[in-house]
């Protein structure tokens, strides 16, 4: 009986070691960080956040996803994910991201909220993104998942 327990303990320790090695830490050198320093590991995928944003609302979280678009005027906001997406602003307007960050992967820390965006504000963001025709189509407030980021890490672009 004692021998079987030792074998089981040994097998479990091998499985645990393999599991820990199968998820390598994110290499900090691969990222540019804006705002407050953030952890790179353990981010929730944006698809999980968007599936149930109310589960994350009002608390600090770390999530990751591709940048869909960035404000082309200052880099003062961005959208993460596909459709739907998360609208991201930066805490205290203290930092911005590069205007050409579209398509890069991002890891963000901050707080999620689900808000109703007034017509004028929703149109303003579309105008900043250069989507003038889409802005004109907004005729009622828009329900949106928003994020106030305290820090953002952007994967560095790969050399072409």
Low-pLDDT residue spans: 5-24
Percentage of helical residues?
Answer: 25-40%
Shape: globular
Number of strands: 7
Short description:
With 160 residues, the chain is an alpha+beta fold. It is built from 4 helices and 7 strands.
What does this structure look like?
- The protein contains 4 helices and 7 strands; from the N terminus they run αββαββββααβ.
- The protein has one domain (28-155): OB fold (Dihydrolipoamide Acetyltransferase, E2P), CATH 2.40.50.
- It has 160 residues and is an alpha+beta fold.
- It has helices at residues 2-21, 46-51, 119-128, 132-136; strands at residues 31-35, 44-45, 60-70, 77-80, 86-90, 105-117, 142-155.
- The longest helix is centred in the N-terminal third of the chain and has 20 residues, at 2-21.
- A 5-stranded mixed barrel has the order 3-4-5-7-6.
- Residues 5-24 have low confidence and may be disordered.
How would the blueprint of this fold be written?
Elements: H1 2-21, E1 31-35, E2 44-45, H2 46-51, E3 60-70, E4 77-80, E5 86-90, E6 105-117, H3 119-128, H4 132-136, E7 142-155
Parallel strand pairs: 2-3, 5-7
Antiparallel strand pairs: 1-7, 3-4, 3-6, 4-5, 6-7
Structure characteristics:
alpha+beta, five-stranded mixed barrel, globular
């Amino acid at each position: 009986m004692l021998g079987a327990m030792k074998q089981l303990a040994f097998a479990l320790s091998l499985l645990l070691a393999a599991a820990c090695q199968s998820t390598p830490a994110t290499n900090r050198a691969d990222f540019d960080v804006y705002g407050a320093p953030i952890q790179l590991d353990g981010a929730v995928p944006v698809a999980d956040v968007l599936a149930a944003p109310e589960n994350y609302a009002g608390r600090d979280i770390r999530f990751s996803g591709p940048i869909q678009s960035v404000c082309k005027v200052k880099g003062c906001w961005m959208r993460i994910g596909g459709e739907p997406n998360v609208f991201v602003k930066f805490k205290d307007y203290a930092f911005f991201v590069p205007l050409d960050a579209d398509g890069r992967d991002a890891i963000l820390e901050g707080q999620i909220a689900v808000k109703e965006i007034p017509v004028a504000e929703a149109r303003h963001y579309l105008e900043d993104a250069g989507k003038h025709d889409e802005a004109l189509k907004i005729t009622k407030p828009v329900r949106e998942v928003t994020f106030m980021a305290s820090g953002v890490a952007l994967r560095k672009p790969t050399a072409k």
